[in-house]
Amino acid sequence: MNIPKTIFISYRRNDSAAMAGRIKDRIKAFCPKVFIFIDVEAIEGGAVFEDVINNAITRSEIFICLIGKEWMGPPDNNRMMDVDDFVRKEVEIGLNAGSKFYPILIDNASMPDGYQLPPGMRPLCKKNAMELRHSSFENDMNNLLKTVFGYDPTLKLSKKMNIFRSALLGIPIGLVLLVVLAHFIFSVTNVSLKQSLGIELTVIFLVGIPALTVFAVYRLLNR
Q: How many CB atoms lie within 10 A of CB 120?
């Protein structure tokens, strides 16, 4: 699994602030150690915006660009043509920073056409975008985590479920085998399992046979 140290999430506040927060929370839950730069309003007063953003983005291994339906602004006011627009600045820096760049289309938003963007942003249109929708957030977010981290988070849950099912099936089977073994020994030797094997070996059998059965069932479930 590839674990980036820093992720930069670019979004327009009136467009996808809620989704940006959900993405941050989900990534942190999946990988608590990663640092996520998300809120430009956290920049201290007096700091030079371009310097802070440039440093944050160039330090980031992952750049996530959230594109909602209002990302460019209203039809009669394309905010990406404003040289002072902070989202435009973030994206232009991100495209040139050398970090892995992931455009994310929010709730069926469309990727803008090149003519709608200034020259410095047009390489964005060549990036393969992923989708993230409120209606299928978990599935879409799992796909994003798989792409970014190189690991399918659903496998972790599947593995835990298989362990639980293995114990649920294996322990009763192991106990049945113990009863059969004890009955067989008694029928042959006319003594109990404890008398035949001794206390230490009996304890080993009591613990070992169910444990081996659980392991065997687990291997069968994961073939």
A: 16
